[in-house]
Amino acid sequence: MRNIYLDNNATTQPAPEVLAAMEPFLRDLWGNPSSMHRFGGQVKRHVERAREQVAALVHADPAEIIFTSCGTESDNTAIRGAVEAAMQRMNVVTSRVEHPAVLAPCRYLAEKGCRLHEIAVDAEGQLDMVQLGEALRDGPAVVSLMWANNETGVIFPIPEIAEMVKAAGGVLHTDAVQAVGKVPVDMRKTAVDMLSMSGHKIHAPKGVGALFVRKGTRVHPFLLGGHQEESRRAGTENVPYIIGLGCACEMARLGLEKEQAALAMRRDRLEKGLLATCPDARVNGDRVHRLPNTLNISFEYIEGESILYMLSDVGIAASSGSACTSGSLEPSHVLRAMGVPFTAVHGSVRFSLSRYTTDQDIGATLEHMPGIVRRLREMSPFGRK
Amino acid sequence: MWDYTERVMDHFRNPRNVGAVENPDGVGEVGSLACGDALRLTFKLDADGRITEVKFQTFGCASAIASSSALTEMIKGMTLEEAAAVTNQDIARYLGGLPEQKMHCSVMGREALEAAIENYRSGSTTKKILAGKVVCNCFGVTEEEIERVVRENGLTTVDQVTNYTKAGGGCGKCKDDIAAIVDRVRVELLEAERKAGAQAAPRRLTVIEKIRLIEQTIDREIRPLLKNDGGDIELIDVDGNRVKVGLRGMCAGCQVARFTLKDVVEVKLREFVSSDLVVEEAKE
User: Fold this and answer.
1) Residues B20-25: what's their mean pLDDT?
2) Fewer Cβ close by (within 10 Å): the C or N end of chain B?
3) Do B38 and A381 touch (CB under 8 A)?
């Protein structure tokens, strides 16, 4: 059975080019870039080359890139580091639909005495800008708002938000883990102070990420104990993975325009096809301001985990916002914040594409989904009679 | 993915008795769209008062569908008295076990069956009998229901109650109340046990009791330990005082499996079931 992988917002296939770029640094060039001998020292310039590649993808200065172990570390460093480095008491402002890697540190800081504002979203998943304005007037703030949502793909107007935060004298961090590599992200045009990236969402392996910190932004380091990364992140550099991240960023930058269009075309075909063949289905989230690779769609009267297992039986990998798949009993906090009715939350499925998704993959998914939905509806006590 | 048994996946992929019985004698409905799972059970009795036809409709995850399907297979041919004695543990056991967090699916099956029998007996069509004080407002779980799962499944923690009834899995405000109920029932059970122990000398277990107790001990005491190391265990046979088990997962072929058998499995079974048990690995 062919593996049809439509869960790329969870993780992506490492690109063969990335693996090839990494291999010499696992096998031969395994020295420590901080060493005072040629064997180790020669590795340093490769790390710096990777830094340039990462910086180029988001149009930043290489000196503004810090390598981390993952997106979660980048988020934690940015939010907690900015609050700790502030010379005054800071409010923390975030949204109700953030990834737990942002929500949890924000709530942690609230426990430690910061005033926390969690901004609401509308039915489309778009940020309530009026509420944001009010929160910013409440005092100096560290603001963390995502560039694109991992569940729905909805894109927040980060450039506009950045102007508001800047005018209010706040610090803005954005979790761009899902946006980078899928839509243009330009640090020259957007006044964000910090931006998180993750390797394994853009075809590098798991275990490497980056944090952009604009020059002049004060952040307290999260890891202490070494001079690496200009003392902004201690710990011996994870060289092979940093090289991999650099290569993945370069591929993303060079392919961005073409891939963006191809992703949107396939995603739209999937969306249209599913809406046409599966009754009582609805798309969740703003369909205009959305990542080109993401489709979050709800099938009423049936439950997401059942859909996923049936999809898995025919080799299709996707994910769901249903309670049963979350490991808790609560369904997706994102869909609930949007006011998606319970009937639709439990039956939500996220399909997320990548550059390796083919027309065939979409065709096979369109072939299998109507039957799965029909079978589960026949079993369900609810629905149109 | 959840660690579902082959039996669960079979009942999910090939559910038995889907649909609604025409002109049913009993109808039971539990759960709701908001809760994330719901079950509608219908049955018909024959002239002897045995369940001759039974069907289900379920909205829910793979284990909810499998639990419903299993339930219908189990109670077909039973009298209502026999069916009323089916517990959620019976359903889980029929499926070869359910993940701890999914035990509420088996409880939903038992509740739907009860509601259907109640409907037959009294004509009551209340979707769910909300007897007593509601403890968990998020999922509408009453004190009585919580007491019952604690008693029937020997639960000891709030997390377990959440896994079995969903109570406490929403906003979490009722967790203290649940803890109080768990404590109260535990004390009651322990006192009852002590009294019973004082009255009667320990009697010999019947074969069925022994096997059930062995299964319970494996489920509660042994499997969680092995799972920590990525392993699993299956009860193959009980022959007198000899218990044959198969080691699975990381335990299968593990160099120290021999010690696991003696130092973990046998020790626990002797402690909880009978001191004369000998554990052997079944050779397949």
Assistant:
1) 94
2) C
3) yes
CA dihedral A170, A176, A181, A185 (to 10 degrees): -20
Q: What digits encode the pLDDT tens for the residues A204-243?
A: 999 999 999 999 999 999 999 989 999 999 999 999 999 9
Q: ipTM more than 0.90?
A: no
Reported in sequence order, the residue ranges of B46-146 that DSSP labels E, i.e. its strands, are 51-59, 134-136, 141-142
Which CATH number among 3.30.43.10, 3.40.50.1370, 3.90.1150.10, 3.20.70.20 corresponds to the domain A4-11+255-379? 3.90.1150.10
Residue in B13, B17, B61 to test binding to A, most A beta-carbons within 10 Å: B61
- Set of chain B residues whose Cβ sits within 8 Å of the Cβ of A301: 33, 59
pLDDT digits (tens, 9 = 90+) for A38-57: 999 999 999 999 999 999 99
Q: Which two tokens stand for residue A263?
A: 């992703």
Shortest CA gap A38–chain B (Å): 43
CB contact under 8 A, A329 and B169: yes
pLDDT digits (tens, 9 = 90+) for A285-323: 999 999 999 999 999 999 999 999 999 999 999 999 887
Asked if A329's CB is within 8 angstroms of B33's CB, the reply is: no
CATH superfamily of B207-281: Fe-S cluster assembly (FSCA) (3.30.300.130)
Classify each residue of B201-222 as buried b or exposed e, where b means 16 or more C-beta atoms within 10 Å of its C-beta. eeeeeeeeebbeebbbbbbebb
